[in-house]
Structures are given as structure tokens and as C-alpha cells.
Amino acid sequence: MKITIVGTGYVGLVTGTCFAETGMQVTCVDIDINKIENLKKGILPIYEPGLEEMVERNVKKDRLHFSNSLKDSIVGCECVFIAVGTPPGEDGSADLKYVLGVAKEIGQYAQNYMVVVTKSTVPVGTSLKVKNALAEALATRKSNLRLDVASNPEFLKEGAAIDDFLKPDRIVVGIDTDEAKEIMNRLYKPFLLNGHPLFFMDIPSAEMTKYAANAMLATKISFMNDVANLCEIMGADVNMVRKGIGSDARIGTKFIYPGIGYGGSCFPKDVKALIKTAKQNGYDMQILNAVESVNENQKSVLFNKITKHFGNNLTGKTFALWGLSFKPKTDDMREAPSLVIIDKIIKAGGKVKAYDPVAMHETQKFIGNSIEYATDDYDTLPNADALLLITEWNEFRNPDFEKVASLLKNKVIFDGRNIYDATELRKIGFQYYGIGVK
Asked: Which end of the chain is more exposed for a tag (fewer CB within 10 A), N or C?
């Protein structure tokens, strides 16, 4: 089966590579010439565990190809996936200009029947706009060619994207013709052999499923952060509360870990877009408005603890940061809480020395050299006034605390992810601040 993926960002590259892994002929297309040339050399634009090796393997097997030409790449294709960015506009709505631009180009160049699949996260109703863009391009050519559309939202977790794609919890496909259903069924047949569920539904429902899923997960995070803040006021321990409620199967243990707020490319953007979609249709998403508000406030919680301990003027103070990316196993800095914390520290007169296993180069794209970058985690500590744990990378979970204590100017730890044991640290003389704990 021959397919084309338009867009070589996170979703497009993972999607194309994983389909190639199942034996399909895949061409990933991007207008960025440098990006395509780098991909041909094995240089990836993103960090994702296991992806580099999989790209290399499938390129060698001649199953995975990279091109700047959509016109050439879609010849003989049965499926074309649109996996380009949908950045949020100033009003929070998803910007569809790239999606619709690709749809128009497909309509200009398609020579055979194919299914045009929206893989990008798009608002409900986008597939109709894609269909109209295709139709307009075909009409301009005076072509009677028929192209079907489908919605196939992605549910990839950064840091675990390959497993999520090859061993999915579910595959959601929105279609409106039998021909499209047959092609999409063949496309995902390798996954069905292992019992992974494939849900066919109408296109608007598929589009809504993606937003609803991310909004629900964001809601769990903000809810637990709200509870954590109340726990501190009331003298309760949110770690105990989390265990108590997580044992209820109706609630579960996932996404109820308190912290310093969610970030990344999906949750913030998708929550905003769903709120905006509702508003455009005369409905107010009251819960999601609160979810967003709680999350924005939560990104300042750790800084507020810092100023409570050291005072509002941080001039002369240096802070060691462990972790910069919004979550472990990714270099993604979009909406990362670390950026908010760093900005507040600098504006209060403080300095930051940070270390992250993979995200420091990406961080420089956002804030340049406004902070100092360390060579490893312990290199951040000498003469620092406190340690801030920002991202719960595995290598930060069991440090040598005696060594940490010997290097820090003050034995103070601000744990933004509650991965350390407060009692143990206090026994060896640390002042410990977590989220929602005594």
C-alpha cells in the first residue's frame, strides 16, 4: 500500500515511520527543504525515543522516503495524510491555513482516487472545509476526479509515541463513504491482528473525540492541582489523597499527579481551541475555562514558594534547575512550565543554571542565553541557593543527596513533581517544598 504523509513534524514523522515499519511504502513530504535534506541524512527535527533507529531502518529497507514535492509523491497513492501544524491564533482558535493549503494542493495534483485523511488536530467541521478546498481545486482543473475525506486523529504521548502508534489503545476513524472505510480498514489491518480496537464513526464525532480526550486529561491534571493547593492550606498530604482516590477504578491512577501545570503542543492548544469552538457556536465550556485558569496559575506555584522562602527580591540568588522540557523523554519546550518559572526568577533579579538531558538546545530557541546551561545535573549546584526539580527525568529520581547538600549554598529543594520523600530529606537537613504536601 502506498501512502503519503504531508508534514514532518512530530505527528507526521512518527506516523509515516510507523506505517513504514508495517511494510507500507511511505513518502513524507515537507516544504522545508533543509528539513527534508536532513531527514535523508538521518538527522531528525525532533527527539523521540526509538524514532531515529526506526527511521534509519526503514530508509535502508526502501520503505520510507522523504520529498519536497507533493505533486510527485501522491502519484498512485491510496491515502494522503495531512499532518501539518494548526497553531493557535490570538483568540485561541486553531489556525487552519496550513491544513487547507495542503488540501488545495492535493486537489490541484491528484490524478487518481484517494482518501485525504486529516491527521492534524482540527476543530469539528474542518473536514468539510477540506472537502470544499479539494472540490474547488478540482473544479478549477475542470476535473471529475472523486476524492474522499476522512478524519483519523492521533493519540500519541510524547516520549512514548512509537508504542502508542504500534500498540494503540484505540484507532478512531471518521468516514462518510464505504470506499473510504475499506481503504482505512486495510491501512490499519496490521494493527487489528493484535486486537487493537478500530472505531469507525461519522467525521464530526472523530474530530470531537480528539479534543474531548485531551480536554479530559487536562481536566484531571488541573483538578488534582486544585486539590493539592487546598491540601496545603488544610494540612493534608496530596500524595496520600492521590492514592486514596486513585484506587477507585472509576477514577484510576493516571493523570492525577499534582505538579506545576501541563504544557506541550497538545493540551494547552486543544483546550483553548475547544473553548473557542464552543464560544463560536453559542456555548460556554465552563469546566474547561476553569481548567485553563487553574493551569496558568499552577505554573507560578513553585515561584511563589521561592519568594515566600527568599523574599520577593532575588537579586544575588542563583537557582539550579533540573529539567526544562514540559515532560520527560522529549525536547518539546512549547508551553513548558519551566519557561514561566525562569522568566519570573529573572524578573525578580535571580539567576538560573539549568540542565536537561535533551532539551537545552531547544530551550535556547525560546530564551537564548538568558540562563546558564550546565554540563550535567550536579554541575548546576555549586553555589546555588536552591535546587528546583522541574521535569521528572529518570536520572533525577535518585540523586546522591549528600553530594547535593555539599554543593548547594543552602540545603533547599523545591520539588515541582513530588518525586522526593520530604521526610527523608528533612532528616538530613534539607528544607523541602513540594506541591500539596506538608
From this structure: C
